[in-house]
Design a protein that fits this description.
The structure is a single chain. By secondary structure, the chain is α+β, with helices and mostly antiparallel strands. Helices cover 53% and strands 19% of the residues. The chain folds into 2 domains: 170 residues, Histidine kinase-like ATPase, C-terminal domain (Heat Shock Protein 90); 60 residues. β6 and β7 form a beta hairpin. Keywords: ATP-binding, Kinase, Nucleotide-binding, Phosphoprotein, Transferase, Two-component regulatory system. Pfam families: HATPase_c, HisKA. It catalyses: ATP + protein L-histidine = ADP + protein N-phospho-L-histidine. This is histidine kinase.
């Protein structure tokens, strides 16, 4: 299976990711300052366009409303990511069928993928695999990764999701055929506010690492320039 071919290539990142994530808690104050700074910029933009909208009497007002909506959504995204990073995450752990959970995520994100003519292939069968987890948190972590894959994958590309059980561990592998990342960028993934996106904050992946780690799992990444990244999530059951 696809997972068997990719396990070894992820191992070299594991220790670095665990160390990076464990070092973040003492720097929440610095994180707060940075988030506030990031939020002030779109708020300033909103105020300017709202002033223009007050005197606008043509259809141009619709364009301004669209800009404001986009900025508001960006604020909400940053605020939600920050809350996930700064607040202790409490678990509501129950037995969950991880296969059904991932299928629901794929179904949820398929419209976004179809907008770019991207195919999401589920390389696993419907046989249930039950683990103890917080359904909302694990679902959010997987949404973050697949959503990032959709954004990074070019039109007409593909994303492959695979699941397997091994030694009391569930392995979830998510590959895309985007442009990939250099080793320098790969080493910085999960660091606060590092992102390769023009409008990203870098907090989404940090949240994902924390959610998986809080479940006793780990997440590793493998990539090289010219080949899309491969995310490997390991969860105990």
């Amino acid at each position: 299976m696809l997972i068997e071919q990719n396990l070894d290539s992820h191992k070299h990142l594991r220790d670095k990711k665990e160390t990076t994530e464990s070092d973040k808690i003492p720097f929440i104050g610095e994180l707060s300052t940075s988030v506030i700074h990031e939020i002030r910029n779109p708020l300033t933009t909103l105020k300017g366009f709202m002033s223009l909208l007050e005197t606008e009497t043509t259809n141009k007002g619709k364009e301004y409303v669209g800009i404001m909506r986009s900025e508001i959504e960006r604020i909400e995204k940053m605020a939600n990511d920050y809350l996930h990073c700064s607040k202790p995450q409490t678990h509501q752990v129950q037995q969950q069928n991880i296969v059904a959970l991932i299928q629901s995520v794929v179904f949820l994100l398929e419209p976004s993928a179809q907008n770019k003519q991207i195919s999401i292939h589920s390389n696993f069968n419907d046989q249930p695999i039950h683990i103890k987890c917080d359904e909302v948190q694990i679902k959010q972590a997987i949404i973050n990764i697949i959503k990032n894959a959709i954004e990074a994958t070019p039109n007409h590309g593909e994303i492959i999701v695979d699941i397997k059980q091994k030694d009391h561990t569930v392995l979830i592998l998510i590959n895309d055929n985007g442009s990939g990342m250099s080793q320098e960028h790969l080493n910085q993934l999960g660091i606060s506010f590092f992102t390769t996106k023009e409008t990203g904050t870098g907090l989404g992946l940090m949240v994902t690492y924390n959610l998986i780690k809080n479940h006793g799992g780990q997440i590793d990444v493998s990539s090289k320039k010219g080949e899309g990244p491969s995310f490997l999530i390991q969860l105990p059951y």
